[in-house]
Design goal:
- The chain has one domain.
- About 85% of the residues lie in helices and about 0% in strands.
- About 50% of the residues are buried.
- Helix 5 (about 85-110) runs antiparallel to helix 6 (about 115-130).
- The chain is an all-alpha fold.
Length: about 290
């Protein structure tokens, strides 16, 4: 894994932390998630018009990924509705890379060497340590938030493996991610609006009218983040890319400490050291 790939995936991790923070900052998590991803159509249509659609071999993977992403959006909104970002985000993102690594050999046929496993384990443990160090477990809905987060970790691992195989089958990361956003953008939005009912929809439209600019920023960040990840999966092992991507939790912690004057503490420092060691293991040894 070259330094160029590492740098690209780390930048994608920063973008990922940004759009998740924007969803958490909104008062309506489900509607904010739906709005952000429905705006992916505006980005996907011109890109597909230029680069075209993926070949037939990629479409079964796109269909599977689109189905998993609907579950992901529901679980994401549920986790953020019941728990802090500092609790749910690291549980979702820290658990998924280990699940991807476990699935890599039987599903993808990729075998990680020992240093690769050390890198994945170090990043996952560091992500959990950084994220959970500032979280409170005393909330009445703490258990429900954790259940949503753990469910989403499984879903994230599932669509990561599916998309890793799909982008390789298609052979073009830009075609694949643009088509995926085109297919993914409207089903969850439609379900959310349907569940609101006629009486609640005017308020929902008013909320979206206030939030669309921030949501567009989040859409750009989401598309950029996942596009970078899928491209990297054509250049390096899927499990390694998945683990590197979850350093987004570290970016959130650093931003909180430097800009928001949040505490860093010994556990976050230890988690940071584990993440850095994991990245170095993946880059230099694996």
């Amino acid at each position: 894994m070259s330094w160029g790939i590492v740098a690209a995936v780390l930048f994608g991790a920063l973008l990922h932390a940004l759009w998740n923070g924007l969803i958490k900052a909104g008062s309506d998590k489900a509607l904010g998630t739906a709005l952000m991803h429905s705006m992916g159509v505006a980005l996907a249509v011109p890109v597909v018009a230029v680069v075209g659609l993926p070949p037939p071999a990629a479409w079964p993977w796109i269909a599977g990924s689109a189905t998993l992403h609907i579950g992901y959006y529901f679980a994401l909104a549920g986790a953020y509705r019941h728990g802090d970002l500092g609790l749910t985000y690291p549980v979702m993102r820290g658990s998924a890379p280990l699940l991807v690594a476990l699935a890599s050999l039987p599903v993808i046929g990729e075998r990680l060497a020992a240093p690769g496993w050390l890198g994945v384990a170090g990043i996952s443990a560091g992500v959990l340590l950084v994220g959970l160090s500032g979280s409170s477990g005393n909330s009445p809905s703490h258990g429900k938030a954790l259940r949503f987060a753990l469910l989403n970790a499984v879903i994230i691992a599932g669509y990561t493996v599916v998309d890793g195989m799909g982008v390789r089958a298609g052979g073009n990361a830009l075609q694949y991610v643009a088509t995926l956003f085109l297919v993914n953008s409207l089903p969850y939005f439609t379900l959310v609006m349907y569940r609101r009912g006629a009486a609640e929809r005017p308020a929902a439209w008013a909320y979206m009218a206030r939030r669309w600019k921030l949501s567009l920023l989040g859409t750009l960040a989401s598309a950029g983040s996942y596009g970078i990840a899928l491209w990297a999966m054509t250049q390096a092992p899927v499990a390694a890319v998945a683990a590197l991507r979850e350093t987004s939790v570290l970016f959130a912690a650093v931003i909180g400490a430097s800009w928001l004057k949040e505490g860093f503490g010994a556990r976050r420092a230890a988690g940071t050291a584990l993440i850095v060691a994991g990245v170095m293991s993946l880059r230099l040894l694996a």
